[in-house]
Amino acid sequence: MSDQSASPGAAFEPPIEESRPARLRDLSSVSAVLNTAIAATLLDRFGRQAATDAIRDVLNEARQAAQAGAWSAPTAEDLAVGALARLEARARSELRPLFNLTGTVLHTNLGRAVLAEAAIEAAVAAMRDPMALEYDLPSGRRGERDDHVRALLCDLTGAEDATVVNNNAGAVLLALNTLAGGREAIVSRGELIEIGGAFRMPDIMQRAGARLVEVGTTNRTHAKDYRAAVTPETGVILKVHASNYRIQGFTAEVGAAELAAIADEANVPLMHDLGSGTLVDLSRYGLQREPTVHEAVAQGAGIVTFSGDKLLGGPQAGFIVGGKALVAAINRNPMKRALRVDKIRLAAIAATLELYRDPDRLAERLPTLRLLARPQAEIAAQARRLAPRVARAVGAAFTVAPCECRSQIGSGALPLDTLASAGLVIRSGQGARALERLAAALRGLDWPVLGRIADGGLVLDLRCLTNEAAFLSSLSGLDGHAPA
């Protein structure tokens, strides 16, 4: 009797003497597979239609293998296991929790800010039950959804009025369309920024219906440049905070307060886009100081726009605060409805803003600030503690050692600032490809682990690692045999 090996990737290896018709006759029927004990799990988790379709798919693959002569008859239980694996793989969402060990705290591709527990609880409550989203309980009449955050935003920023939309790009678009639609918007050349995804300020202005008027140069803009550009067609003067870049060297810019005075002279509003935006002085947490929204309002801006999901630490949102008449005009814009936020996000926004009423405990309650302010010594101790456990998980083909590293804030905020951090560096004598295979294996875990390859090693920056037990549990999926 000769021996015949299965082709690479074949699921079953048939005895050579077994004829093809016999193999096909040995295949179980769909109903037989559905009667197995494993199929009960299939039916309970995925329903009859999905289970039946998956079993048919597995049976079709088995028939194709039989016709290719590289197969042996699977049992009904084998087929049920195959169908279960297929459905589990399909059900496993890519939109699932992961460990952000990239060193970028507010990582745009990973959802930016991690929400505070208070915000999560508020969002869950809004999902579970009806809520008075646009219903005024005292009067029993229709209400406004912005009322849930208006007073909070006004208290925290000193503005007369406030509204909220789905993100800051939407806030800028809506405000410009309202204030300068069909008219001119004056802005310094040095402030014509591009944000993520090649989304450029000139493009936003064009879509808003505003005619862009550039003044000054890339590195130097003066008050006289703004004054000379004002015409009867001017709708707004726009100031854009350089939150995602820096121009250094021979530079000049007009401050917000002086620009507000120029806007007053011209009888047009000053709109100040803070980009990331912050409600507190970040220097108290050891970070570089950024202008706060309260300061932008106090300096005379008619409208200030900023994000909710970056330094503010909440869900994705765009805030518009400023003068009552200007905000009222923005709220009357038909575009506002297209950009409004739903009840779930609104509940999380309100809960996040409430935390700012207690600044003394803000860092312990708001994950973004807690992670940004985390001491390097604490992270280094964690690295020393985890190094031997991670070494066992990845196996003998790799070395694991504690290391110092620098974290980034991310999402365009404080672009030149990095934070002293610590982590683990994983190296391999087999070179870069071995590290790439290990990085891919870590991304393929049930709870993926994301690091960064730099300077010949795979670096796991531990600044954002708060759940050590879950991290080690996830690494157990490597079973000490990471691909080298």
How would you characterize this protein structure?
The protein is an alpha/beta fold and 484 residues long. The chain has three domains: 20-91, no CATH class; 99-108 and 371-478, Aspartate Aminotransferase, domain 1 (Alpha-Beta Complex); 117-363, 3-Layer(aba) Sandwich (Aspartate Aminotransferase, domain 2), CATH 3.40.640. It has helices at 20-26, 30-34, 37-46, 48-67, 76-91, 117-128, 147-157, 168-180, 201-207, 223-229, 256-266, 293-298, 324-332, 335-339, 343-355, 362-365, 367-372, 376-394, 432-443, 468-475; strands spanning 99-100, 135-136, 141-142, 161-165, 184-188, 194-195, 199-200, 211-215, 234-240, 270-273, 303-307, 318-322, 398-410, 413-428, 449-450, 452-454, 457-461. α4 (48-67) packs across α5 and α7 (147-157) packs parallel to α15. The longest helix is centred in the N-terminal third of the chain and has 20 residues, at 48-67.
Helix content: 40-55%
The CATH superfamily of the largest domain is known as: Type I PLP-dependent aspartate aminotransferase-like (Major domain)
The stretches of 5 or more residues where confidence is low (pLDDT under 50) are: 1-19
Q: What is Rg?
A: 29 Å
